[in-house]
Amino acid sequence: MTDAPLIAILDDEPEIRRLLSAALVEAGFRTQCFARATEFEAALRRIQPEACLIDLGLPDRDGLALVHRLARESGAAIIIISGRAQVQDRVAGLELGADDYIIKPFEPAEVVARIRARLRKPARDAGAGRQLVRFAGWTVDFDRYALTSPEGEETPISHAEAEVLRLFLDNPRRLISRAQMLETLGGSAGESFDRAMDVRISRLRTKLGEDPKSPRLIKTIYGAGYIFLAEPA
């Protein structure tokens, strides 16, 4: 059980923490629970969770700001669990780097299924040696969530950005539709998913030094999807 994936739960409601932890432990995960953002952030210096469940209504920190920082600095999958059900709230969370957004009240089984979907890594399971991938002079380290330019400059990438880049590298020079992204990366169909994909790809383009008007690596096929123009070395 010690090598089971660790899930961090940040929610100020004790009953929510208990419910989530019980469901996840029963499903074979380990959990660590926190009531305050300060406790959670301090613990991240010692632990490396595979996924973080974050409530937005925290007593000591803005939840969206915390999600944004985690997306930039952590390789963990980030799933928001919140009572904020408006479309603009879901879009904001996904745009700031969350991998998924679950609205309260929820079914614990759904949370478990969403986490399993987020932690599914087909390329890692298929070939353990593919965590360091080179393409067009670039190198991506999927274990460290780091992208290195041809000049040797290293840039961190979020879990969400890494998922998209992995999908591109697994399907070079092939059209990847929105439907395929939804099926492979998980999430809920609709405007919030489309916006989240647009943001992830835009951030990848920026980190890859791409000019969207004259792409070298990520080409948009309007109305159809995307084509990744480089092949893994």
UniProtKB/TrEMBL annotation:
Domain of life where this protein originates: Bacteria
Record-annotated Response regulatory domain positions: 6-119
Gene3D superfamilies found in the cross-reference section: 3.40.50.2300, 6.10.250.690, Winged helix-like DNA-binding domain superfamily/Winged helix DNA-binding domain
UniProt-listed InterPro entries: CheY-like_superfamily (IPR011006), OmpR/PhoB-type_DNA-bd (IPR001867), Sig_transdc_resp-reg_C-effctor (IPR016032), Sig_transdc_resp-reg_receiver (IPR001789), WalR-like (IPR039420), WH-like_DNA-bd_sf (IPR036388)
Keywords: DNA-binding, Phosphoprotein, Transcription, Transcription regulation, Two-component regulatory system
Molecular function GO terms recorded: phosphorelay response regulator activity; transcription cis-regulatory region binding
Location of 4-aspartylphosphate modifications: 55
CDD domains reported for this sequence: trans_reg_C (cd00383)
DNA-binding residues (ranges): 130-230
Annotated Gene Ontology cellular component terms: cytosol; protein-DNA complex
Pfam families in alphabetical order: Response_reg, Trans_reg_C
Keyword Transcription regulation: yes
Domain (OmpR/PhoB-type) ranges: 130-230
The keyword Transcription regulation belongs to this UniProt entry's keyword annotation: yes
A GO biological-process term: regulation of DNA-templated transcription
Protein name (Swiss-Prot/TrEMBL): Response regulator
